[in-house]
């Protein structure tokens, strides 16, 4: 089960890494709130039939009493709302922040959640092995080499992306709390419907939405909604059931390495020696973290 959970997290990182390309392409046609609203609602719709099926199957196989099922549903609902709030804040900050800063800086600052997660975990009474701290430091250095190609100067966009990293850290910890007690697919479905619905309001108020722009962004939205949201976030929730949050954050941080590789394969971007060294450091950090 532990190996299966790690594979779930690795596959989620792969999907998210490629999703950076989809996000970049989609933002050429629609605003950040519109993009998030469309992809989250699509992700929720895709997962809804599976969530209903799993709920019925779980209730039948475990012969739950009505009171026990209501308790499980209540935990799932509360968890979905909490996850939805965290992912709405994190995704909004990331999408808006990327308009004011470079992709390299955004990738590095977002990756700081691998350090923030164990730091926040200490305040929740969670023990963090020293080797994971070492892995976090090595991975942070790797992300610096991988993503930062110009002078590091903190601006408005950088601050928004940093707050995004903090929000993603809380999202990981919230999942760690609710995933063992709730249905993972239903939890994922609820968080998408909540965050997508909330995103609609600022999209209608602040952005111009047309059918033409939505059609032009249809492929990026489909990838981000069906795979990045519907599949990857569910894999994250299912994977975190058997993996501690600090290790999960390290595995999921591989999405930045994969995003660089996806840019090379899909967009024709060239990897420099500096970036290759950064990829190697991040991979090494994940390997040593697995040994604890």
Word description of this protein:
The chain is mainly alpha-helical and 292 residues long. It has one domain (2-290). Helix content is 82%, strand content 0%. It contains 13 helices and no strands. It has helices at residues 2-26, 32-62, 66-97, 103-110, 113-123, 130-147, 156-178, 184-206, 211-216, 218-239, 245-252, 254-266, 273-290. Helix 1 runs antiparallel to helix 10. The longest helix has 32 residues, at 66-97. The protein is globular, with a radius of gyration of 19 Å.
Which descriptor suits the 3D outline?
Answer: globular
Order of helices and strands: HHHHHHHHHHHHH
Q: Main beta sheet, described?
A: none
Instruction: Supply the helix-strand structural class.
Output: mainly alpha
Q: What is the terminal-to-terminal distance?
A: 17 Å
Question: How are the elements arranged and paired?
Answer:
Layout: H1 2-26, H2 32-62, H3 66-97, H4 103-110, H5 113-123, H6 130-147, H7 156-178, H8 184-206, H9 211-216, H10 218-239, H11 245-252, H12 254-266, H13 273-290
Helix pairs in contact: 1-10, 1-12, 2-3, 2-8, 2-10, 3-7, 3-8, 4-6, 4-7, 5-7, 5-11, 6-13, 8-10
């Amino acid at each position: 089960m532990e190996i299966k959970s790690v594979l779930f997290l690795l596959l989620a990182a792969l999907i998210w890494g490629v999703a950076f390309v989809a996000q970049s392409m989609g933002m050429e046609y629609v605003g950040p709130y519109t993009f998030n609203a469309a992809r989250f609602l699509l992700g929720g719709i895709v997962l809804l039939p599976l969530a209903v099926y799993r709920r019925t199957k779980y209730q039948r196989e475990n012969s739950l009493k009505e009171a026990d099922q209501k308790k499980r549903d209540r935990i799932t609902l509360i968890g979905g709302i909490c996850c939805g709030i965290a992912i709405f804040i994190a995704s909004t900050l990331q999408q808006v922040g990327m308009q004011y800063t470079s992709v390299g800086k955004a990738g590095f600052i977002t990756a700081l959640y691998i350090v923030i997660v164990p730091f926040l975990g200490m305040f929740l009474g969670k023990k963090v092995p020293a080797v994971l701290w070492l892995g976090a430091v090595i991975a942070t250095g790797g992300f610096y080499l991988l993503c930062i190609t110009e002078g590091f100067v903190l601006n408005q966009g950088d601050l928004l992306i940093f707050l995004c990293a903090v929000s993603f850290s809380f999202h990981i910890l919230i999942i760690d709390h609710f995933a063992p007690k709730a249905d993972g697919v239903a939890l994922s479905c609820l968080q998408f419907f909540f965050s997508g619905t909330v995103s609609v309001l600022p999209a209608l108020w602040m952005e111009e939405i047309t059918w033409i722009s939505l059609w032009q962004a249809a492929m990026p939205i489909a990838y981000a909604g069906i795979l990045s949201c519907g599949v990857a976030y569910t894999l994250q929730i299912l994977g975190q059931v058997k993996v501690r949050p600090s290790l999960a954050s390290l595995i999921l941080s591989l999405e930045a390495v994969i995003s660089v590789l996806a840019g090379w394969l899909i967009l024709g971007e060239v990897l420099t020696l500096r970036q290759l060294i950064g990829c190697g450091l991040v991979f090494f950090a994940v390997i040593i973290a697995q040994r604890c």
